[in-house]
Amino acid sequence: MTKIKHVLGISGGKDSAALAIYMRDTYPDLDIEYYSCDTGKELEETYELIEKLEAHLGQKIEVLTAAENSPEKNPFDHFLSLYGGYLPSSTSRWCTKKMKLDPFEKYIAGDGPIVSYVGIRGDEEREGYISKKPNIQSIFPFRKNIWSEDVIQKVLANKNISFITGLYQKYGNTDKIDRILEVVNQELSLYFNQSQKLNTLLELGTKEFNRVVFAFLKTTDYPLAKVDSFPLVENEDVLVRDDIFKILEKSVGVPDYYTKREYHVEIDGEMRTGHYSRSRSGCYFCFFQQKIEWVWLYENHRERFEKAMKYEKDGYTWMQNETLAELAQPQRIRNIKREHLLRMERNEANTKSPYLTDILDDAEADGCAACFI
């Protein structure tokens, strides 16, 4: 069978780092290549984590850098100059394309089959970056559903019901097969959508579903059609945020910017204590940061905050309707802390679980899917 290239991107964050360790420990026979896209604007802790990962994995992590021959000191400044000083934003994410996606596509250039492993957790509701190149297939080992959205759409399409029924009859060796076939033969509609059908089939048998999907892929041009077997077909693990930290704590350690630190703010005449940390890896001035994370940067990495502030000029700012100079004012910082603490207390009251509060805080920070590849 055709040789497949397996790749895994290290963003410098907790999820991709834990995925690299998990894949090495759980599937040691998979020959995985590790890479990281360096923007030149990461925190030192990010580079330290990559060094620790290399030592732990016993394997080199290929560092991909855009604009290598530029006269500028780093990729970000190169493209910032190219874009005339126009800072990236949620509506113009040139940083994602130029410093993450393009180096990745160049790294895996060619038409050979590639499987890319993505660290989206089982408690997240996002898909992550999926390459448009037909020779690249994304797999999500931490989720119950390890397959990408495009694969699921094909497998569960109404036109394929008869074919999928036949595959289940062949590979679905389970006492739940009658119920499974009922679900398979129920057409997608306004009253029974793809997500409902997928989740029901996974609950009835994750391994059986994976075997059927793998058999279906044999009839397509996806990379996994070119191999006889794929070990993740038998995977039933679902890893959530707590699992990620446990993996890191037992191996390379948790990056310091995830460590919650105390802050104090007066509310209704009473001095109260809150906690903040960074919820992401990536550029220290990422525009997807929450305001409390900008405050964290100001108070814990003042020199980085000041460097980010210098990029703001001629109406180009990291946040809409507020400059970093305005955010750094003492009263504004107090207000941001107050709003953050009250929001965290509301979340905790609603969920009755500090763990779920962490998930809510984490999810609100997620924005740039490509920064997690």
User: What is the name of the CATH superfamily of the largest domain?
Assistant: HUPs
Please identify the oligomeric state.
Answer: single chain
Number of strands: 7
- N-to-C SSE string, H for helix and E for strand: EHEHEHHEEHHHHHHEEHHHHH
Low-confidence stretches: 353-357, 363-373
Question: Main sheet?
Answer: 5 strands, parallel
Principal-axes shape call: globular
Instruction: Examine the secondary-structure arrangement and name the CATH architecture of the largest domain.
Output: 3-Layer(aba) Sandwich
Q: What proportion strand?
A: 5-15%
Distance N terminus to C terminus? 27 Å
Task: Classify the helix fraction into a percent range.
Answer: 40-55%
Overall tally of structural domains: 3
CATH class of the largest domain: Alpha Beta
Derived from helix and strand composition plus strand pairing, the structural class reads alpha/beta
Total helical segments: 15
Topology-level CATH name of the largest domain? Rossmann fold
Taking all Cα atoms into account, the compactness measure Rg is: 23 Å
Whole-number mean pLDDT: 90
- What order do the strands of the largest sheet run in, or round the barrel if closed? 3-2-1-4-5
